[in-house]
Amino acid sequence: xxxxxxxxxxxxxxxxxxxxxxxxxxxxxxxxxxxxxxxxxxxxxxxxxxxxxxxxxxxxxxxxxxxxxxxxxxxxxxxxxxxxxxxxxxxxxxxxxxxxxxxxxxxxx
Length: 109
Description:
This protein is mainly alpha-helical.
């Protein structure tokens, strides 16, 4: 089990979107895609979604629940919530530094 999103490579962004969606409650694949579109304006292609889900599950960040009909919902684990929170904290530091540099060097507010 890992404690970060390291090693996800180009799928790290999709992983953050999926974890963020699951932070709001359990969802199956289609519901994840729709939720991400709603809150982030990003369409996750099914190939990407179903490539990332087993990786997140293998890292202990999410867990697959028992299937309902043909739909398998997923749940964020406590470890997943911790990793997501740590990710957001690190991104906030980057955001603040970048904004300060733009303001100082380029006069952006």
